[in-house]
Write a structure and sequence with these properties.
Blueprint (H helix, E strand, L loop, with lengths): L23 E2 L28 H25 L5 H9 L3 H22 L1 H16 L5 E4 L14 E13 L2 H4 L7 H12 L20 E2 L5 E3 L9 E2 L11 E2 L8 E2 L8 E7 L2 H11 L5 E4 L5 E3 L2 E3 L6 E4 L3 E8 L13 E12 L2 E11 L7 H22 L5 E10 L10 H4 L3 H4 L5 E3 L2 E2 L21 H8 L2 H7 L24 E5 L8 E11 L11 E9 L3
Parallel strand pairs: 3-9, 8-21, 16-17
Antiparallel strand pairs: 1-14, 2-10, 3-5, 3-22, 4-5, 6-7, 9-13, 10-13, 11-12, 14-15, 15-16, 17-20, 18-19, 21-22
Length: 554
């Protein structure tokens, strides 16, 4: 499917941008001149189509059509690799293994023949596709009309915002098989249905991340709260003067942050590895009723800096709140298989409301770093670039008088805080700028924190086959040792000297930082969760963070 504007609604416009840095794909956007009046939706400034005109969109569709037969054949050939669940099914059927091998051999021959026959079309399609990508914008924007506008915000009151981040491994099915996952279209539909379970317009069911607490919803999903009960397992103290990681006190050593369900009141969804175009379209379609603003197909494919990018960044952001600006910038230092994907940082500015004639805004950064364990130095440079780009984006978009409610950075960083092999990344400046509520210091997580990377070869086993079973199993030390990925060396091999019991590799993060602006607000953590709802659908546990924004005490 071509990454076109089909099925997208809304009005859009943008200003052109020149002078982009090498390796970056930025789309400068002018912010709204004034806060929107009550009951008046803001003008949509982000472009709906990834192409500036219909002719280029048509050429992209033609190129993808020419590439489709060979792409389908190659994906089918890779998809013949069996997951552990498929292998188990074959063993249970009489003669199933033999028949399965015969079918796979015949199918493999057919796919190879199709790939060879379609090679001339593929070459023509590639020659057409490459120049078209040079004119493609760095994301697809979907705006669903008919949503409530941002309401006036009384800065004397408290509000909360809920963020979800997840690596969903939505690659083409053949590539997903290397992570012991397949059936990408089916998994995409399942994930979308769980991320947006409530019908459009039905809000107010503010389910907890750890324990129930009350609150009255505002127009989008941020909670206007008067009294809060902080979960006992996440007792976090954050003095305003504190610099660096905050002190954390845990009520119990067990990881009490496990939840079987996504929070239905999530305000922002940040996903990684949404590489497959059909999966991205499915997520846009199903999430559009709950999250009016969606950015997908983020990144620049084609020839970039002398390197061929066959996949985009895989980043995907859905928001209940209007997007004022967005910018994507690509890492220049991807290596090995990661160099085929346009990994980078997506930064967005969201409009949360208006207060005394000032805009109330928030900033979100989403990323996915270099994956191979041995590439700590590459990840270190990517983190440094990401921090610089986020700062530049805020400086460019913030207007005088803006009230900044939150500044969040999330994603799959591909390193943990327990492995000796990740020591370089654990000490990065990132953790002096942003705060990690699950971390006590380099190499030391809070006792209640839990790993988010599963042992991918065991994701279909009975004890972890449903959200309820996965939660119950990971609540026990023996279950964590068996089904979570453990500490590693710099080579990626398991660390035989790792002290136990360990809580697993926590590679998925939602970080935040305090922001001092014209109107000082205080940001505090009131909920943290690792979610088991994607049992058998991903090799990662999604994570969620709930922040409370309140005025600074005099």
């Amino acid at each position: 499917m071509a990454p076109s504007a089909a099925g997208h609604r809304g009005r859009a416009g943008c200003t052109g941008g020149a002078g982009q840095e090498q390796g970056d794909v930025a789309l400068p956007l002018r912010p709204l001149p004034d806060p929107p009046a009550p009951h008046t939706p803001p003008a949509m400034l982000l472009p709906v189509s990834p192409f500036p005109n219909r002719a280029l969109a048509a050429l992209d569709s033609l190129a993808l059509g020419l590439l489709a037969p060979s792409s389908w054949a190659i994906n089918g050939l890779l998809d013949l690799r069996t997951t552990t669940a498929e292998q188990s099914g074959q063993r249970q059927r009489r003669c199933g293994r033999c028949r399965g091998c015969t079918r796979q051999a015949l199918a493999g021959l057919a796919y190879v023949a199709l790939a060879l026959l379609s090679l001339p079309l593929a070459v023509l399609g590639l020659l057409l596709w490459l120049p078209v990508q040079a004119a493609r914008r760095p994301f697809v924007y979907q705006y669903t009309a008919g949503t409530a506008p941002a309401e006036p915000w009384d800065l004397r009151q408290r509000r909360t915002f809920t963020f979800v981040s997840a690596n969903v491994c939505l690659l083409p099915s053949g590539l997903a098989k290397f992570s012991n996952l397949g059936q990408t279209p089916q998994r995409a539909n399942y994930i979308a249905g769980r991320l947006a379970p409530a019908p459009p317009g039905r809000r107010g069911n503010h389910a907890s991340l750890v324990e129930p607490w009350g609150g009255e919803a505002n127009g989008y999903g941020g909670t206007l709260s008067t009294a809060w009960q902080r979960p006992a397992s996440v007792a976090v103290e954050m003095p305003e003067e504190a610099a660096g990681p905050p002190p954390v006190e845990a009520a119990e050593p067990a990881p009490a942050v496990l939840s079987e369900r996504f929070p239905p009141d999530a305000d922002f969804i940040c996903l990684q590895e949404v590489f497959e175009a059909g999966a991205a379209a499915s997520l846009r379609r199903q999430l559009g009723g709950t999250f009016p603003h969606v950015l997908s197909e983020v990144g620049a494919r084609g020839l970039r800096g002398g390197r061929l990018k066959l996949l985009d960044s895989g980043l995907f952001v859905a928001s209940r709140y209007p997007l004022l600006a967005a910018r994507y910038q690509a890492f220049p230092n991807g290596a090995r298989e990661d160099a085929l994907a346009a990994k980078g940082v997506l930064a967005v500015q969201v409009l949360l409301g208006s207060a005394q004639g000032r805009r109330v805004v928030g900033y979100i950064g989403c990323t996915h770093l270099q994956a191979p364990a041995a590439d700590a130095a590459i990840r270190d440079m990517q983190l440094t670039l990401g921090l610089r780009w986020l700062e530049q984006f805020r400086d460019a978009q913030e207007e005088r008088g803006d009230v900044v409610a939150f500044d969040v950075f999330c994603g799959d960083l591909n390193f943990d805080n327990c492995s000796r092999g990740d020591e370089l990344n654990q000490r990065h400046q990132l953790f002096e700028v942003y705060r990690d509520p699950c971390r006590q210091g380099p190499g030391q997580d809070a006792p209640w924190a839990i790993g988010t990377l599963l042992n991918y070869l065991k994701i279909y086993e009975e004890p972890v086959s449903t959200p309820e079973k996965l939660k119950r199993t990971l609540s026990q030390p023996v279950g964590r040792q068996q089904y979570l990925a453990g500490p590693i060396l710099s080579s990626g091999q398991p660390d035989p000297a790792a002290p136990g019991p360990w809580q697993g590799r926590r590679v998925d993060y939602i970080l935040y930082r305090q922001h001092r602006g014209a109107v000082p607000l205080r940001t505090e953590v009131v909920g943290v969760s690792a979610i088991t709802q994607l049992a058998t659908r991903s090799d990662h546990l999604p994570v969620a963070l709930r922040l409370e924004v309140a005025p600074v005490a005099p």
